[in-house]
Amino acid sequence: MRAMSEPINHAGDACRPLAGKRIVLGVTGGIAAYKTPELVRRLIEQGAEVQVVMTEAARRFVTPLSLQAVSGRAVRESLWDPAAELGMGHIELARWADLLLVAPATANSIALLAQGRAQDLLSTIALATAAPLMLAPAMNRLMWAHAATQDNVRLLASRGVRLLGPAEGELAERETGPGRMLEPGEIRDHVVAHFGGGRLAGRRVLVTAGPTREPIDPVRYITNRSSGRMGYALAAACAAAGAEVTLVSGPTALETPPGCDRVDVETAAQMHEAVMQRAGDADVFIATAAVADYRPAEVAEQKMKKSGSNISLELAATRDILADVAARHARLFTLGFAAETQDMEARARDKRERKGLDMLAGNQVGAGLAFDVADNSLYVCWQGGDTRLPQAKKTELGRQLVALMADHYSRSPKYDA
After folding, report:
1. What is the DSSP letter of 304?
2. Nearest Cα residue to 121 out of 22, 25, 6, 7
3. Given the DSSP bridges, would you call strands 294-296 and 385-393 parallel, antiparallel or unpaired?
4. Domain that holds residue 190
5. CA-closest candidate to residue 200, choices 42, 415, 381
6. Is-catalytic flag, 152?
7. Which of 108, 224, 363, 376 is catalytic?
8. 188 and 238 inside one domain
9. Do residues 254 and 341 both lie within one domain?
């Protein structure tokens, strides 16, 4: 095996954004540990040197031999290894690292790190290193939501620790909710972005997501079925690609994606104002929000009482955020969305041309499609071309769409505008 100071000779390092970067990967005892061999492979593909450090509990979910095979380095497991610690090996390893990445990060490991306890090799390295610390949480949804875990997370974030996720989805206990570890490719993208090698590094991206609520009276409003998942997935993918992301969000139950600055709004008018205030500083505008096309012309000051007879509600058109941005900020690369119940592809192409957008993603909506589900499919069109992104989780679709957008943006004259 290679000595700690011996570099890996990668051919073509110029094309690998993690070339020469030294990553200590801490693996703790969660079921998501089975994904770590793939994570190691993804990091090494990008040129990184990876040294795996396992906790005792992690051995119950993945073997040291499998991680040694993919990393090319003997896995470190114990603070009391006589050979490794002969020369204060944990200090050497702490100083060797350019990044300490813990994936999966269980509730227990997060608590240890928050308390600053040096209980094992991994937690000791965390205290002894000056390298940045990234955590990819993975646990049961109730453990993640527990006040103790949330307090620990906030404390670590206040110290500059970067949290990647967790994602929302199916969990090992056959439950669904937040607590799922990000996929290896997503974690790799965040690591690449951390070192300034992402496809959108140095670019500022403005994203809208979620529904809007248009008040009828103090207790009622008009809204739609958008969950915001697609917009949040795109914001996360842009951040993972190195962009500085501002997310303007309507009301959702979703957590702010890692690396994103979130602005909460409620109505279409508030979203329009928030976007127009920030569009001038952006390079890319992604409009995924399901903005109400109409609002009540008059909002009752008091709750409207049921009278037993029918009432009529006059509606007024709202401002078209996407069209206004495209018209006023010609240098912005604009990606819009179209949710259609029929003739989706034709209507998507028409909307892109009519609003003067660089790219548009269309999706078929209806019963069991797009809204209130974790997966989707997209039809994407641009000037002179189109493609289809098949059914997949919205997080994966977000990564695919951002990669496609980045390709077109890099070839656009707006790139250097």
Report:
1. P
2. 25
3. unpaired
4. 13-194
5. 415
6. no
7. 224
8. no
9. yes
Q: Which of 151, 171, 194 is the last residue of a domain?
A: 194
Best CA proximity match to 163, nearest among 178, 177, 146 = 178
CATH of the domain at 106: 3.40.50.1950
On whether both 178 and 208 belong to a single domain, the answer is no
Cβ pair 180, 166 in contact under 8 A: yes
Residue linked to tokens 């940045």:
132
Rg of the chain's alpha carbons, rounded to an integer? 24
pLDDT band for position 163 (50/70/90)?
A: very high
Q: What is the pLDDT of residues 46-89, one digit of tens each?
A: 999 999 999 999 999 999 999 999 999 999 988 777 655 544 56
Same domain, yes or no, for 213 and 286? yes
**Measured between alpha carbons, how far is 393 from 373 in angstroms, rounded to an integer?**
9
Please write the tens of the pLDDT for every residue from 99-112: 999 999 999 999 99
Bond prior to 211 in cis (omega within 30° of 0): no
E strand spans, 201-308? 204-209, 214-215, 221-222, 244-249, 260-264, 284-287, 294-296
pTM: 0.76
Number of domains in the chain: 2
Contact 120, 89 (CB under 8 A): no
353 belongs to a structural domain: yes
Indicate whether 143 and 234 sit together in one domain. no
- Quote the CA–CA distance of 130 and 125 in Å, as a whole number: 10
